[in-house]
Amino acid sequence: MGDNQAGNGSGSVININGSSAAATTTKSPNLQRRSSNGDVSPPELRILCFDLTYYNRTTQFLLSCAGVFVLYILYGYLQELIFTVEGFKPYGWFLTLVQFGYYIGFGLVERRLESYRASGVPFWQVKPAPRCIPIRTYLVLAALTLGTMGLSNSSLGYLNYPTQVIFKCCKLIPVLVGSILIQGKRYGPLDFGAAFCMCIGLAWFTLADSQMMPNFNLWGVGMISGALLCDAAIGNVQEKAMRDYKAPSSEVVFYSYGLGFVYLLVVMLITGNFFSGLAFCLEHPRETFGYGFLFSLSGYLGIQFVLALVRSSGAPIAATVTTARKAVTIAFSFVLFSKPFTLQYLWSGLIVVLGIYLNVISKRHKLTFADLRHRLKQFSSRMAKSPNRKFLIEV
């Protein structure tokens, strides 16, 4: 889902495309509940069937971090491994169809588990909670989810996996533009500085990739760029819908991927790509359906750990952890899969990391352009009054 996921309707919002995670919170992660007898209990924290509510904050953080690192590193490894199968590169869209199918099953199971916990009715008799968000909103979300996941998967047929991850790290750029256009939000200088660093680092990384890969193809750049644009729109549409209708993440996942599966299946049946993809996967069932199941499961479970991290530690900490995870994933990619390497990859990646760091800082310190102008005036006035400054002028 490389860092697109849905948060729970009561507190957090995070894009529903698993790979990596940008998040915003509308309530404090430290919000406490009050029991019937008046005692204050800690905020509920669950990861599927596991209740982490009564663990201390450090244990919650460490468990969430471990889950994010292990599951998303496995997710990235399996995704790249599938594309190393000889002849598989043209079938990225069929992999997306398989992934959507698995996510539908996972989402249905999770919805039933939620209803089971709430009602106590036997699991096989329980019915999922009714839908909260209108179907017309899900029609839009499904199309955007399909664009994000399909284009992201297919881009691996044309790009190095580290380049794809670097593009995903720069999701802030289209998200920033999209939130300004769609929701009318305003941002400060740190946000724009972060976007600028990401643009520079991304351009440098792509240039290095084009020089190191003899089969570098701009189609891959176009695909992953289109995936990021869809991802930016998803985040803003999701945030508004979940805020207005208080929908749980399992509902958003189930309907977004369910309708996306129908969209993609119809298109692939019309174009004939469904049958060619199915024939290839039936020839290599372990490498496609088998690895695809593990790939999808690790991504889906990874979402749950990211959401738990957002709830327990807040969005800035979650963004820092998921960014560190992406850096480790890139390092594993170079170690486990043979590919050319240049120091330009390192420097451009560090510039992108600087941009992400500025974005995290901007969440904690809301610096506006007016604040920046005021600080610059204060600095210039101090410089004008400084004895050293006077001495230099006299000299």
Automatic annotation (TrEMBL):
Give the organism the record lists: Drosophila willistoni
Location(s) in or outside the cell: Golgi apparatus membrane
Q: Name one GO cellular component term.
A: Golgi membrane
Q: Does the keyword GTP-binding apply?
A: no
Q: What is its main location?
A: Golgi
Question: Topology versus the membrane, per the UniProt entry?
Answer: Multi-pass membrane protein
Molecular functions per Gene Ontology: 3'-phosphoadenosine 5'-phosphosulfate transmembrane transporter activity
**InterPro entries named among the record's database cross-references:** SCL35B1-4/HUT1
Q: What is the lineage of its organism?
A: Eukaryota, Metazoa, Ecdysozoa, Arthropoda, Hexapoda
KW Iron-sulfur (keyword) present: no
> What name does UniProt use for this protein?
Adenosine 3'-phospho 5'-phosphosulfate transporter 2
> TM segments?
61-78, 90-109, 137-159, 189-207, 213-234, 254-276, 288-310, 343-361
Q: Which UniProt keywords apply?
A: Membrane, Transmembrane, Transmembrane helix, Transport
The protein's matches in Pfam families, at most eight in alphabetical order, are given as: UAA (PF08449)
UniProt similarity note: Belongs to the nucleotide-sugar transporter family. SLC35B subfamily.
Q: What does the entry give for GO biological process?
A: heparan sulfate proteoglycan biosynthetic process
